[in-house]
């Protein structure tokens, strides 16, 4: 995007309105129902108030503290409702609407209900004040208007003058002086003045609520879902629209975002200065473009309020006047710098009453130290989660009694906070929470004055170096397949800690110290690049911070900041001193006479008044479309397979390998002709982990290795292959992660984010920890984690804790963790050792006994015990230990330390869509470790957006025609159940949706019931049955239809139930065609597992002989009833294991073999069938066996807890059994349910490797024969059943009980050669 910098030496575009493409119109339709529309050139957002809400109690009374609990409950349940629709703007859609204002609007801040009416707030005037970098602009709100959605009474009330100099005067908030004598006073007048006082900012280009480090590095991306509600001041008003947006389909959601109708507003300060190239600290070849220096402050709304109405902390850990201030710098050379720091009230429970005498307001402590500690700990826990380590800078006076008392409580809170305890006997310098007490007044009392405040540098410089800063650079290889160049940023460095500064008000002293800290960060950034800034640059920096202090002080205290004269010029003048006296007097007036009314207005804006309820929006048509699209997902989505190469290498701090050939590691022979779509490379000890390095992350080494990897990939794939681009990289001191992707698949990749988690020195140091990068490949979320865990032979418990800390404490945007991904790959130096002595280990290595070595591997044992990496899998290890070698040789450590060889470098995976193809080490000898690599085949889901949009539009138009018009402009009669408009029964025979007035389960006092009949067959000679190939899980995408047509076989006489032994069948039992009238529905009972019994004591006959099947009967259902859960099969003795008996949904017991024979008779003899190879489930154990193929245990769900000892849950069989219990129109005899459900115990732990049993071998047929010999006398034999095909969940269930070559039954399996 090109910009015209007409005045590069002044603030950018001061007073310039936003561009027209960011504007829209506000329109009104009064008949037949009052509706408001926000319209752009292509779309319209239409809202109409629900008449049912008019019966609610007026919100004008919500502020009364005398309301009883009963009345409060009634108010909370009377939330106002509005109908909403977002639709494409077509000809005639807005023909009945007229403009409400001749000027354009710049988005909406949301909806609010006041005095029985609902109001829509829109921005009517705004001006651009900042450009963080090209494409990221910030506007200041100059004026807003509230338009009533439910009444025309306020249409002609004059709007406030945004340039009225008295708009923020005290009389406005107290006696009402200065108000216009209008006949009707607008209920939102105070809100209008508050939002238009110049302290609110918004952006339609990027998420202004998050700092640069916490949002996508690509400036073109804008994610409403990631708003930080701590800084989103219109969160209460905009939340209904954001929830409505989340229910839209992607096409409509993208169109709504592109329309810039929804606006996120922050409060605080934002301004940019353009730095001409002549004085810019970083030079650029792009002549003529200035650099941008920006300061942006975000005031938290969690404990918002005025000076004496909001002090200290609350029970949720929120503090008053909490502000995040970010300094950013963008250079045309392609560099983006960001540094954030915070301020906030002293985090203890205290109050201070306003008084007319300055500096005489008494401080009152309202809670003891013990009572304060939980809230104190919560506050710093939240800071640590958001920013990393915290260094407190307390500027309170040590001589003033009130401030001294606060300092004492503050010091005690820090000492008792868990984050301040470094652990391991280390000093407090290694804690996550540190404190520096710096008496500002005492330090600046001498002749130097405020200049002496620079002495703070020596107290905080150590933490400043460790916290680092955020840095992103333009990629040099941002090419596309078409050869076009586009600018793309790659994160180089991240800020890993924050300074929290406070004085009493967190205004004047705090702003001056934060200016110094910001200057230190910029100096460090420039110093690492060998540059320095001129005085002109620092002058602009100082002026920005002085303006920031004035703005924040006016919000909290009513006037500009004191000491701002020194902040601007570096010296204190007489005029500045006089200005400070005037500001102090003005503050007294505001604090005593205006702040209480201002506090009420703030609480109303934030929705905190007693009983205040948000507006409810609903759009039945869009909700119906979402459900239909989910059901038809198989029509627009497909699965494709991609390949991922993952490598990990502990470099031992060496750089000798930069010039070596890395192709044995990055282009292994197992790839063959495959070119992986994604290459993820993890490094450990990329720098030497000495005491000077563990607190800082120098990106220089990482960049050198990135270039070496890129060079190797280009050389190997440059001839005829796609080029690779660096997608993103991250670093935590010695650990680094680089993600390279093929240029041709960049369009499939989105939502790329990075995060780090320290575990060294109890989380303070980065010598140990993890770096993670996540991305969405099409519609499949994938996460890569490289970790360096605690060292030491016996420290496996500490390594387990490191894993748990990373797994539970590493977070991306949207509160998304590692486990919130379909595919996760962990790799790195996990440091788990082999639990044998040196000589034994070397002897086993020499003879190649990998099996014995692996049996003593610490990681294997911890995973088997469920103490680490729960539900992760590792492929078979076929290579020698990767640690520790003499550098340059294949000889294990011969030094005095004599390290025991071990597989410290590992690659683990989790996800049912991952299939591993290779796992090996590479012969690179320039480190004491060997690099390890793995190749994966990943199944990703790709949605055809055009096809999906077409289906969505068809469903929408059809439903719209059925309902009868636009939802928000509906002419249908009003009812109290308007939220159910458009909701009919989802299927014939099912009841409609319920409401407060109509509940289908109470109709006539009868039990709920429904019947589902199969579709009528197309030909008389056929019948309709459930499709046995359809997955039992109805939510799994499939191309299989629900029903299947089957020719009607010749009629035979049905076998009647008998109490005696079942006779030998001479002909297959045939299913009768469906009767004209379905039998009455029967209340279904859940299937229970019966105890193992002999055939002689069981009820005679199987389900196939005791019940006459009708057209809706299905082989799938019969098989689901016949197959017992896996745990029952594993529990039974060998004599009964192949003839399991269970109770079906109607209480009948069925023998498995007879059921299969009967089932085959129902399906015909020409279909393939189920093999009888049904061995009991192997217990969960990781054995280094070569038997079996690559796969993932289908039955194990993703979870953060350890699997139960002795086995894993068999979800596949559970789903199959549950599917059989669904209501169907097939009358079956009903017998009483069992008195008590018997749950068989889990199978005991047994070796995973197949153990030959005499007479059994590996043949399931032989096992069955032996079982029959040992068991009770078998029933008469039936004709040999033919195989029956199984797919989906049933196939997975049978596989789990059968040959383990198709399923991974634990965390270990062998490799299957790729086909």
UniProtKB/TrEMBL annotation:
<feature type="region of interest" description="Disordered">
    <location>
        <begin position="1008"/>
        <end position="1110"/>
    </location>
</feature>
<dbReference type="InterPro" id="IPR000300">
    <property type="entry name" value="IPPc"/>
</dbReference>
<feature type="domain" description="SAC">
    <location>
        <begin position="191"/>
        <end position="558"/>
    </location>
</feature>
<protein>
    <recommendedName>
        <fullName>phosphoinositide 5-phosphatase</fullName>
        <ecNumber>3.1.3.36</ecNumber>
    </recommendedName>
</protein>
<dbReference type="InterPro" id="IPR002013">
    <property type="entry name" value="SAC_dom"/>
</dbReference>
<feature type="compositionally biased region" description="Low complexity">
    <location>
        <begin position="1053"/>
        <end position="1070"/>
    </location>
</feature>
<dbReference type="InterPro" id="IPR046985">
    <property type="entry name" value="IP5"/>
</dbReference>
<dbReference type="Pfam" id="PF22669">
    <property type="entry name" value="Exo_endo_phos2"/>
</dbReference>
<feature type="compositionally biased region" description="Pro residues">
    <location>
        <begin position="1272"/>
        <end position="1284"/>
    </location>
</feature>
<comment type="similarity">
    <text>In the central section; belongs to the inositol 1,4,5-trisphosphate 5-phosphatase family.</text>
</comment>
<comment type="similarity">
    <text>Belongs to the synaptojanin family.</text>
</comment>
<dbReference type="Pfam" id="PF02383">
    <property type="entry name" value="Syja_N"/>
</dbReference>
<feature type="compositionally biased region" description="Low complexity">
    <location>
        <begin position="1080"/>
        <end position="1092"/>
    </location>
</feature>
<feature type="region of interest" description="Disordered">
    <location>
        <begin position="1218"/>
        <end position="1288"/>
    </location>
</feature>
<feature type="compositionally biased region" description="Pro residues">
    <location>
        <begin position="1229"/>
        <end position="1253"/>
    </location>
</feature>
<feature type="compositionally biased region" description="Low complexity">
    <location>
        <begin position="1254"/>
        <end position="1266"/>
    </location>
</feature>
<dbReference type="InterPro" id="IPR036691">
    <property type="entry name" value="Endo/exonu/phosph_ase_sf"/>
</dbReference>
<feature type="compositionally biased region" description="Low complexity">
    <location>
        <begin position="1218"/>
        <end position="1228"/>
    </location>
</feature>
<keyword id="KW-0378">Hydrolase</keyword>
């Amino acid at each position: 995007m090109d910009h015209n910098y007409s005045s590069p030496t002044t603030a950018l575009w001061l007073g310039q309105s936003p561009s027209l493409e960011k504007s829209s119109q506000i329109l009104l339709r009064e008949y037949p129902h009052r509706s408001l529309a926000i319209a752009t050139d292509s779309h319209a957002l239409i809202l109409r108030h629900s008449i049912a809400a008019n019966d609610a109690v007026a919100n004008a009374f919500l502020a009364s503290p005398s309301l009883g609990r009963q009345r409060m409950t009634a108010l909370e349940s009377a939330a106002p409702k509005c109908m909403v629709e977002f639709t494409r703007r077509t000809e005639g859609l807005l023909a009945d609407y007229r403009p409400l204002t001749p000027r354009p609007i710049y988005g909406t801040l949301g909806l609010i209900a006041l005095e029985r009416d609902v109001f829509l707030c829109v921005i009517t005037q705004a001006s651009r004040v900042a450009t963080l970098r090209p494409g990221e602009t910030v506007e200041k709100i100059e004026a807003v208007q509230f338009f009533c959605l439910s009444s025309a009474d306020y249409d002609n009330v004059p709007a406030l003058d945004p340039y009225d100099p008295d708009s923020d005067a005290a009389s406005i908030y107290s006696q009402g002086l200065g108000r216009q004598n209008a006949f009707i006073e607008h209920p939102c007048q105070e809100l209008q003045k508050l939002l238009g006082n110049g302290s609110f900012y918004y952006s339609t280009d990027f998420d202004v609520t998050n700092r640069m480090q916490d949002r996508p590095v690509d400036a073109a991306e804008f994610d409403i879902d990631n708003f930080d509600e701590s800084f989103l001041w219109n969160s209460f008003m905009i939340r209904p629209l954001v929830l409505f947006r989340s229910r839209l389909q992607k096409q409509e959601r993208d169109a709504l975002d592109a329309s810039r109708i929804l606006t996120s507003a922050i409060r605080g300060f934002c301004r940019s200065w353009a730095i001409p190239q002549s004085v810019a600290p970083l030079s650029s070849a792009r002549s003529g473009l200035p650099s941008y220096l920006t300061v942006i402050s975000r005031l938290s709304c969690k404990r918002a309020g005025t000076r004496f109405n909001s002090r200290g902390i609350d029970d949720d850990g929120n503090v008053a006047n909490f502000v995040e201030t970010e300094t950013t710098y963008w250079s045309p050379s392609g560099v983006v710098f960001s540094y954030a720091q915070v301020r906030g009230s002293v985090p203890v429970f205290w109050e201070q009453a306003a008084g007319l005498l300055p500096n005489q307001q008494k401080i009152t402590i309202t809670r003891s130290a013990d009572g304060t500690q939980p809230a104190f700990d919560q506050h710093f826990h939240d800071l640590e989660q958001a920013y990393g380590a915290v260094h407190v800078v307390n500027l309170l006076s040590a001589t003033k009694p009130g401030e001294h008392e606060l300092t004492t409580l503050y010091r005690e809170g820090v000492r008792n906070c868990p984050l301040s305890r470094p652990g391991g006997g280390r000093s407090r310098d290694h804690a996550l929470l540190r404190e520096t007490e710096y008496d500002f007044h005492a330090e600046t009392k001498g002749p130097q004055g405020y200049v002496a405040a620079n002495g703070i540098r020596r107290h905080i410089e150590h933490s400043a170096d460790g916290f680092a800063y955020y840095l992103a650079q333009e990629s040099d290889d941002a090419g596309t397949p078409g050869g076009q160049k586009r600018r793309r940023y790659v994160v180089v460095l991240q800020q890993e800690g924050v300074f929290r500064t406070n004085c009493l008000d967190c205004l004047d002293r705090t702003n001056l110290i934060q200016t110094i800290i910001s200057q230190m960060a910029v100096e460090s950034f420039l110093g690492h690049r060998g540059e320095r800034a001129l005085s002109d640059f620092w002058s602009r920096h100082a002026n920005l911070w002085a303006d920031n202090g004035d703005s924040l002080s006016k919000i909290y205290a009513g006037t500009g900041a004191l000491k701002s004269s020194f902040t601007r010029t570096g010296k204190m003048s007489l005029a500045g001193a006089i200005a400070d006296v005037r500001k102090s007097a003005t503050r007294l007036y505001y604090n005593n006479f205006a702040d209480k009314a201002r506090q009420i207005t703030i609480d109303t804006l934030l929705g905190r008044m007693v009983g205040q309820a948000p507006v409810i929006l609903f759009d039945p048509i869009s909700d119906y479309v979402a459900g239909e699209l989910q059901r038809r997902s198989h029509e627009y989505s497909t699965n494709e397979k991609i390949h991922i190469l993952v490598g990990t290498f502990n470099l031992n701090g060496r750089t000798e390998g930069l010039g070596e050939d890395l192709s044995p590691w990055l282009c292994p022979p197992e790839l063959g002709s495959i070119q992986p779509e994604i290459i993820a490379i993890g490094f450990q000890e990329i720098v030497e982990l000495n005491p000077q390095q563990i607190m800082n992350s120098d990106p220089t080494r990482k960049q050198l290795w990135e270039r070496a990897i890129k060079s190797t990939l280009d050389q190997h794939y440059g001839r005829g292959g796609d080029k690779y681009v660096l997608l993103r990289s991250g670093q935590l001191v010695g650990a680094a992660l680089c993600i390279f992707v093929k240029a041709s698949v960049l369009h499939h990749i989105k939502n790329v984010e990075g995060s780090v988690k320290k575990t060294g020195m109890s989380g303070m140091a980065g010598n140990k920890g993890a770096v993670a990068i996540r991305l969405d490949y099409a519609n499949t979320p994938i996460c890569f984690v490289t970790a360096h865990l605690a060292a030491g032979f016996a420290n496996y418990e500490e390594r387990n804790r490191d894993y748990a800390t990373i797994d539970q404490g590493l977070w991306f945007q949207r509160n998304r963790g590692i486990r919130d991904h379909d595919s996760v790959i962990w790799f790195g130096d996990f440091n788990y050792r082999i639990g044998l002595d040196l000589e034994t280990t070397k002897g086993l290595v020499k003879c190649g006994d990998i099996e014995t070595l692996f049996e003593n591997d610490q990681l294997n044992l911890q995973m088997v015990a469920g103490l680490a990496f729960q539900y992760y899998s590792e492929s078979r290890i076929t290579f020698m230990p990767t640690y520790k070698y003499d550098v340059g040789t294949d000889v294990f450590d011969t030094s005095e330390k004599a390290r025991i060889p071990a597989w410290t470098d590992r690659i683990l995976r989790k996800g049912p869509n991952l299939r591993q193809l290779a796992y090996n080490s590479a012969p690179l000898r320039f480190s004491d470790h060997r690099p390890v690599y793995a190749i994966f085949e990943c199944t990703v889901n790709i949605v055809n957006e055009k096809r999906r949009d077409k289906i969505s539009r068809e469903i929408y138009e059809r439903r719209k025609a059925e309902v009868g018009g636009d939802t928000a402009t509906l002419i249908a009669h009003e009812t109290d159940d308007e939220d159910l408009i458009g909701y009919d029964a989802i299927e014939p025979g099912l009841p409609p949706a319920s409401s407060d007035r109509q509940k289908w389960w109470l109709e006539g006092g009868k039990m709920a019931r429904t019947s589902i009949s199969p579709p009528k067959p197309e030909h008389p000679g056929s019948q309709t049955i459930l499709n046995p190939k359809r997955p039992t899980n109805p939510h799994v995408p499939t191309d299989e239809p629900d029903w299947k047509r089957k020719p009607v076989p010749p009629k035979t006489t049905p076998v009647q139930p008998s109490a005696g032994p079942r006779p030998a069948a001479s002909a297959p039992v045939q299913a009768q065609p469906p009767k004209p009238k379905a039998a009455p529905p029967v209340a279904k009972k859940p299937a229970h597992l019966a105890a193992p019994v002999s055939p002689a004591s069981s009820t005679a006959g199987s389900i196939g002989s005791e019940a006459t099947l009708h057209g809706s009967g299905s082989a799938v259902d019969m098989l689901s009833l016949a197959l017992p859960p896996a745990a029952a099969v594993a529990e039974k003795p060998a004599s009964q294991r192949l003839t399991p008996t269970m109770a079906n949904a109607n209480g009948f017991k069925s023998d498995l073999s007879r059921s299969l024979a009967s089932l085959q008779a129902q399906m015909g003899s020409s279909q393939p069938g189920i093999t009888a190879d049904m061995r009991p489930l192997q217990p969960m154990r990781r054995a280094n066996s070569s038997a079996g193929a690559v796969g993932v245990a289908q039955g194990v769900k993703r979870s953060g807890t350890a699997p139960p000892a002795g086995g894993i849950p068999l979800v596949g069989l559970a789903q199959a059994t549950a599917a059989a219990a669904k209501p169907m129109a097939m009358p079956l005899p009903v017998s009483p349910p069992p008195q008590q459900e018997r749950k068989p115990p889990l199978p005991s732990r047994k070796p995973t490797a197949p153990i030959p049993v005499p007479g059994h071998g590996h043949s399931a047929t032989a096992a069955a024969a032996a079982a029959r010999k040992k068991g009770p006398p078998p029933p008469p034999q039936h004709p040999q059943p033919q195989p029956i095909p199984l797919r989906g969940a049933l196939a997975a269930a049978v596989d789990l009980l059968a040959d383990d070559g198709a399923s991974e039954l634990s965390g270990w399996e062998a490799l299957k050669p790729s086909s």
